Amino acid sequence: MSKLFFIGTGKMATAIAGGVVRAGVLKSSEIAGFDVNSAAAETFKSVSGADAFCAGLEKQLETAEYILIAVKPQMLADALTGYREILKEKTVLSIAAGVTIEKLEALTGSKRIVRIMPNTPALVGEGVTAVCRGDNITDEEYER
Fold first, then answer.
1. Using N-to-C axis directions, what is the helix angle for 11-22 and 38-48, rounded to 10°?
2. Lowest-pLDDT range, 19-23, 65-69, 79-83, 117-121?
3. Cα–Cα distance for residue pair 62/42, rounded to 1 Å
4. C-alpha–C-alpha distance, residues 125 and 66, integer Å
5. In sequence order, what are the residues at sequence separation of 6 or more whose Cβ sits closer than 8 angstroms to the Cβ of residue 21?
6. Quick check: 121 pLDDT over 90?
7. Which among 99, 133, 119 is positioned nearest to 15, based on CA atoms?
8. Residue 78 — φ and ψ, nearest 5°?
9. Tell me, what DSSP letter sits at residue 7?
10. Partners of residue 15 on adjacent β-strands
11. Per the CB 3.0–4.6 Å rule, which of 27, 111, 126, 144 could disulfide with 136?
12. Which tens digit of pLDDT belongs to each residue from 50-60?
């Protein structure tokens, strides 16, 4: 079981996962990710120390506490197709640029959405991140 599960393990997801581990927020054993690109998954794994998968997404989603969507906005609908029943019970975070909370709610079925907009210096651990929460995120969830 992962506390934080990434759908997409590209550069920004890898930077976030690595930063979370380096900052001591989560252990690498509490993070995992999925990507259809095996090279991206391997880089994610080597940088963060977290597990990365190229198969078995449904099982990983079912056991995760938080889901972080880290795919390009144009890939979002395809990446989430077939997982709405699982995602509707999860807290979903997204770094997909330009995708509104309402759109994320419609795609995932979740009413617990947080949009996260890191900037590119995050790739080297020096970024700033804007965070916007949906109406159903508690103060405690938001702080976490």
1. 20
2. 117-121
3. 22
4. 22
5. 27, 28, 31, 48, 49, 50
6. no
7. 119
8. -65, -40
9. E
10. none
11. 111
12. 999 999 899 99
Convert the pLDDT of each residue in 34-43 to its tens digit: 999 999 999 9
Helix/strand/coil for 59: helix
Position 124 pLDDT exceeds 90 = no
Q: Long-range contacts of range 107-114, CB-CB < 8 Å, 24 or more positions apart? A: 107/76, 107/77, 107/80, 108/80, 108/83, 108/84, 109/84, 109/85, 111/135, 111/136, 112/136, 112/137, 112/141, 113/137, 114/141, 114/142
Q: What share of the chain is helix, strand, coil (3-state, %, to 5)?
A: 45, 20, 35
